[in-house]
Amino acid sequence: MPKRVLEGVVVSDKNDKTIVVKVERRLTHPVLKKTVRLSKKYHAHDEKNTAKIGDVVWIEETKPLSKQKRWLLVDKTAEAKG
User: Fold this and answer.
1) Is the pTM above the cut of 0.85?
2) Total domains, the chain
3) Domain containing 62: what range?
């Protein structure tokens, strides 16, 4: 089964080797027919502590690394602005 890969923004890097990534998705509301933005936060493993708050990153699904970490940092696509 292929691993899921998601793109999101780093919202926290305070923990050692862990980042919190906010992934946003858009969908059409079934009744209102209006586009709605839904977001979810994922804890991801960052071995070298390279990602900083505001960076746009790709994360990949992996085996459980801890109680909350089930994702692994794959790549940084954009640096934080400013």
Assistant:
1) yes
2) 1
3) 5-78
Question: Which of 15, 29, 22 has its CA nearest to residue 65?
Answer: 15
Contacts for 31 with CB less than 8 Å, ≥ 6 apart: none
Q: Return d(Cα 33, Cα 49) in angstroms, integer.
A: 41
> Could you report the per-residue pLDDT of 11-34, keeping only the tens digit for each?
999 999 999 999 999 999 999 999
Tell me the two tokens of residue 72. 């692994």
79 backbone dihedrals φ, ψ, rounded to 5° = -80, 160
Closest CA to 51 of 5, 16, 3: 16
What CATH number corresponds to the domain at position 71? Answer: 2.40.50.140
